[in-house]
Amino acid sequence: MSPERIDLPQGTLDLLILRTLSLEPQHGWAISERVQQVSSDVLRIQQGSLYPALHRLERRGWIKSKWGTSENNRRAKYYELTRMGRKQLEAETDSWRKLTAAVAQVLESI
């Protein structure tokens, strides 16, 4: 029986991409595979959401890209965090933790 998949709340995709890229540069498919793997198959990023998000993050200067060769010898665009992206990751991680703590507090008290 596979785990139930849930929809990502608004803004969460950017955080997941930034966190995944904080480890090492990766191409788009590897980013979505890593998130799926680490979340025990609960979170799945659709290609139709992933690539627009990557382009948006690149426009904001939080990630940069360059062409390279993937594990299976295909040309792929690799993304990596910029210095500004690392700062954004810290800020978004802090905000996420505050939000989830507050929501948990409300759920436990009511």
In short:
Helices cover 55% and strands 15% of the residues.
Helix-strand layout with pairing:
Elements: H1 12-21, E1 26-27, H2 28-38, H3 47-59, E2 63-69, E3 75-81, H4 83-109
Antiparallel strand pairs: 1-3, 2-3
Helix pairs in contact: 1-2
Q: What does the model show?
A:
It is a single chain. The chain has 110 residues and is of the alpha+beta class. The protein has a single domain (12-109), classed as Arc Repressor Mutant, subunit A (Orthogonal Bundle), CATH 1.10.10.10. It is built from 4 helices and 3 strands; from the N terminus they run H-E-H-H-E-E-H. It has helices spanning 12-21, 28-38, 47-59, 83-109; strands at 26-27, 63-69, 75-81. It has a 3-stranded antiparallel beta sheet. A hairpin with a 5-residue loop joins strand 2 and strand 3 (75-81). The longest helix has 27 residues, at 83-109. It is globular, with a radius of gyration of 15 Å. The protein starts with 11 loop residues before the first helix and ends with a helix.
Task: Compute the separation of the termini in Å.
Answer: 32 Å
How many domains is the backbone divided into?
1
Helicity, as a percent range: 55-70%
**The top level CATH class name:** Mainly Alpha
Q: What is the arithmetic mean of pLDDT?
A: 93
Q: SSE order in H/E notation?
A: HEHHEEH
Biggest beta-sheet profile: 3 strands, antiparallel
Number of strands: 3
Strand content: 5-15%
User: CATH topology, which one?
Assistant: Arc Repressor Mutant, subunit A
CA radius of gyration is 15 Å
- Looking at the overall shape, the CATH architecture is Orthogonal Bundle
Bulk shape: globular
What spatial order of strands do you see in the largest sheet? 1-3-2
CATH superfamily: Winged helix-like DNA-binding domain superfamily/Winged helix DNA-binding domain
Total count of helical runs of at least 4 residues: 4
